[in-house]
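Service request form, structural biology core

Requester: graduate student, group of Dr. S.
Request type: structure prediction, single chain
Budget code: on file
Notes: please return the result as C-alpha cells.

Sequence provided:
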Amino acid sequence: MDGAIDLNADLGESYGIWRLGDDEALLDVVTSANVACGFHGGDPRVMAATVRAAVARGVAIGAHVSYPDLVGFGRRAMEVSPAEMAADAIYQLGALDGVARVAGGRVTYVKPHGALYHRVASDPDQARALLEAMRAYDPGLILLTLPGSAAAQVAAELGMAVVGEAFADRGYLPGGGLVPRGQPGAVVHEEGAVVERALGLAREGKVVTVDGGVVEVDAASLCLHGDTPGAAALARAVRQGLEEAGVALRPFSS
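Core staff response, request fulfilled:
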C-alpha cells in the first residue's frame, strides 16, 4: 500500500426505459468508471451519456465487458468458447472506446462483469482468451480483477498490466474469494461496517472474513456497487472516511 487507493463503480447499466443506479451521483465520488458495453446492460445512448459525464469529471473509463446476457444481467454462467468470448470482448471494447473517443476520452482498462468476472478468475484458458483479446485491441489496457486470480496470474505471464481490486461491501471467504451472491454474508449493508472495511483494505490490505478471520487482499482499487438502494450515500461515506483518514484517492490508469 502506498497510501493511495482508486475507487471504482459499475456504471451505465440502464437500458432503454429501464433505469438502474444513480450514475451522476457516483461519478462525483469514484475515480474510475466501469461502463457497461451493451451485453449485460447499457445501450449506445446510455454509454455516450456515461462517458461524457466521466470525461467531464476526469474519471478514468473502463470497459465492463460481459457475457451476452441482458435478461440475466450478465450474472448467469454461460458455456462460451474462448474464441467466441474473445470476439465478444473485442466487440464491446471497440464500441465503448469509440463512444469514449468521441467524448474526448478513451478506454484505459477492462473489468469483466458478473459471471465472466468469476469465470476468468478461476479458468486460465478463458482468462488467457480475454487477455489476448485485450492485447490485440490495445496492449496498454489494464485488467482489473481479483488479486491472485487465474486472470492475474495469466496477465503476469503475458507481461500485461493487472490491478487487484477489493470489495468493502462484499463478504470474503477464508481463502480470499467472495461469498457467492445469495448466500448468507454475501453483501455487507451497514454503512459503518463498510467504511471500516474500506479503511482496513486501503491502509492495511486486510479484511475480515465471514468466519471472523482476517485475509490479506493486495488491491489498488475498491469497488463501490451502484445497483443497490442507498448506494450513492454509501459511496460518499466511504470516500469521506478515506479522505478523513488521509488516504489519497486517484485512478490506477490514465
